[in-house]
């Protein structure tokens, strides 16, 4: 069972990490499209079809839908805490991502100048200068790092061929600390292989990477909605707190979500 957003703009929804958040889905409404295929992804498994067949919303459609929704929220007297790029896959894949970011910042300034523009990304496209430059303009980059070792990264995130952990970490370091790292902890089994990013060795290696990246803070959380791989364990809040305290010992802040 999977969970897909069927519109370009959704919410505002109450998010466990972003409070009241108006979401933007730059991916197809009925189809997950991503450079990763995480075992825990609430959108289900990534399809292997040719990406040429995937229909993404146009920049003009996103602009008009966002404007309409912001005007409606303003008229209702509410105020979203965040405008968040999330949705059915990896938002930075969109070929007009950089231009859509510019539009969003302009509309945010017009309607809710206090609201943060946030991108949730798996960090796999940071080597594209237009993506990297666009992300540097926004308020909150929340970028994924689920593993310290390349083996666990492969098992949990199932990235497209050619997307190495080493390369991604190098790009995360280019943010000079102006980023938030998001890490989902999980144990279980997928396709006959043991998945576990909570082992002592794995945590030690992951913290080593965090020390190189020096993020503002690290979001630590367990699986939430149903994942495509059924045999996954939700890590307890207490265990996540223990992991967080090891990170904080290194002078890096954390926020733990259950
Ligand atoms: S990066 Fe996000 S959208 Fe892509 S597979 Fe992983 S959890 Fe799903």
Give an overview in words.
The protein has helices at residues 59-76, 97-111, 129-137, 150-157, 165-173, 200-213, 237-249, and strands spanning 9-15, 19-25, 82-86, 116-121, 140-144, 180-184, 186-190, 193-196, 217-221, 232-234, 253-256. It has 258 residues and is an alpha/beta fold. The strands form two sheets. It has an eight-stranded mixed sheet with strand order 1-2-3-4-5-6-9-11. It has a three-stranded antiparallel sheet with strand order 8-7-10, covered by helices on one side. β7 and β8 form a beta hairpin. α1 (59-76) packs parallel to α2 (97-111). The longest helix is centred in the first third of the chain and has 18 residues, at 59-76. The protein is globular, with a radius of gyration of 18 Å. The site of iron/sulfur cluster has 10 residues, from loops.
SSE layout and pairing:
Elements lengths: L8 E7 L3 E7 L33 H18 L5 E5 L10 H15 L4 E6 L7 H9 L2 E5 L5 H8 L7 H9 L6 E5 L1 E5 L2 E4 L3 H14 L3 E5 L10 E3 L2 H13 L3 E4 L2
Parallel strand pairs: 2-3, 3-4, 4-5, 5-6, 6-9, 9-11
Antiparallel strand pairs: 1-2, 7-8, 7-10
Helix pairs in contact: 1-2, 2-3
Bound molecules: iron/sulfur cluster.
């Amino acid at each position: 069972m999977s969970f897909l957003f069927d519109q370009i703009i959704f919410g505002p929804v109450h998010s466990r990490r972003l409070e009241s958040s108006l979401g933007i889905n730059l991916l197809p409404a009925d189809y997950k499209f991503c450079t990763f295929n995480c075992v825990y992804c609430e959108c289900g498994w990534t399809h292997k079809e040719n990406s040429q067949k995937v229909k993404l919303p146009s920049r003009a459609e996103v602009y008009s839908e966002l404007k309409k929704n912001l005007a409606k929220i303003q008229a209702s007297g509410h105020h979203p805490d965040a405008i968040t790029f999330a949705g059915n896959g990896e938002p930075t894949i969109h070929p007009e991502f950089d231009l859509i970011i510019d539009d969003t910042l302009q509309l945010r300034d017009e309607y809710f100048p206090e609201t943060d523009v946030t991108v949730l990304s798996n960090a796999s496209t940071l080597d594209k200068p237009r993506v990297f430059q666009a992300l540097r303009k926004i308020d909150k980059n929340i970028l994924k790092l689920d593993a310290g070792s390349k083996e666990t990264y492969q098992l949990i995130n199932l990235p497209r061929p050619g997307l190495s952990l080493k390369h991604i970490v190098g790009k995360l370091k280019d943010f000079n600390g102006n980023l938030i790292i998001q890490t989902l902890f999980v144990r279980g089994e997928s396709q006959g292989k043991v998945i576990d990013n909570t082992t002592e060795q794995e945590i030690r290696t992951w913290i080593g990477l965090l020390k190189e990246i020096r993020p503002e803070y690290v979001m630590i959380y367990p699986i939430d909605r149903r994942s495509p791989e059924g045999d996954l364990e939700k890590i307890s809040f207490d265990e996540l707190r223990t992991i967080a305290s090891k990170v904080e010992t290194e002078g890096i802040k954390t926020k733990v979500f259950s």
